[in-house]
Amino acid sequence: MTARRLRRPWTQWTVGLTGVNARPDNPGPGCAVARCLSESVGFRGRIVGLGYGTLDPGLYHPDDAAGGHLLPYPAAGADALMERLEEILAVEPLDAIIPSLDAELPNFIALQPELARRGVRTVLPGREQLRSRDKDRLPALCARAGVATPRVRPVSDPGFFERCTAEEEGAWSYPLVVKGVLYDAYVVHDPAEAAYRFGQIARAWGYPVLVQAHVAGEEVNLTALGDGTGALVGPVMMRKQALTEKGKAWAGVAIDDGDLLSAGERIMQALRWNGPLELEMLRDDSGTLHVIEINPRFPAWIYLSHAVGRNLPAALLALQQGVRREDLPLSPPRPGVTFIRHAREIIVSMEEIVSVSMSGSTLPRTLPDPRPRLSA
Amino acid sequence: MERAAIDVKRTKDLVLSKDGAAFDTKTGRTYRLNPSGEIALRLLQEGLPEDEVVGRLAAHFAQRTAVVAAATEAFVDQLRRYLP
Question: Which residues of chain A neighbour B28 with C-beta distances below 8 Å?
Answer without folding.
Answer: 220, 238-239, 241, 252-255, 335-336
